Structure formats: structure tokens, C-alpha cells
Amino acid sequence: MSRAEIRRRYEVPDNVLETPGGPPDPFPNSRGYDADEVKIIEAISRFRAGGYDERIGFTVYDAVRYRRRSSRW
Predict the structure, then answer these.
(1) How far apart, in whole angstroms, are the C-alpha atoms of residue 53 and residue 38?
(2) Within 10 A of 60 (CB to CB), how many other CB atoms are there?
(3) pTM of this prediction?
(4) What backbone phi and psi angles, to 5 degrees, belong to 29?
(5) Could you report the per-residue pLDDT of 17-51, keeping only the tens digit for each?
(6) Is 6 left (phi over 0), alpha (psi -120 to 50) or beta?
(7) Distance CA 73, CA 67 (A)
(8) CB–CB of 63/43 below 8 Å?
(9) How many Cβ atoms from other residues are within 10 Å of residue 63's Cβ?
(10) C-alpha separations of 37 from 1, 8, 42, 49, 55 in Å
(11) Hey, what long-range contacts does 29-38 have (CB within 8 A, 24 or more apart)?
């Protein structure tokens, strides 16, 4: 999925996507983000919609920890 499509669908700010060393990779390959990266972005978007964001100390790293422990993905 392209970065433009990610922005349109999930409304995740660039500063969140560009977190150094954080998922998803801020530089997708020439075809865009892969399926695993999109799942992470979806999780970040859901958390942000529920009020979990940088204002309360919630980061992309927290979303990835959740993903690793969840059997639903």
C-alpha cells in the first residue's frame, strides 16, 4: 500500500510513521508498505482513535508490543 493511501485510510500523522527505528519502516519499498506494516499502521490508527497517543505517552512501540502478543493478527 502506498504512503499516500496509508495517510488517506488511517490518518496516522507523518511524525508517527517516521519514528526513528520504529515500525513501520518510514521508507517503504518501491511498491509501498507490505501487509505486516499495514497491520501495524492499522493498530496504531485504532489506538489513536481510542485516545491512546503521544499525549499520554503511548507510542508506536506500544502498538507493536500489543501486536506481538495478540493471536488475533
Answers:
(1) 18
(2) 22
(3) 0.70
(4) -70, 180
(5) 776 555 555 567 777 888 888 888 888 888 889 99
(6) alpha
(7) 7
(8) yes
(9) 25
(10) 9, 16, 9, 18, 23
(11) 32/1, 32/2, 32/3, 32/5, 32/6, 33/1, 33/2, 33/3, 33/6, 38/1, 38/6
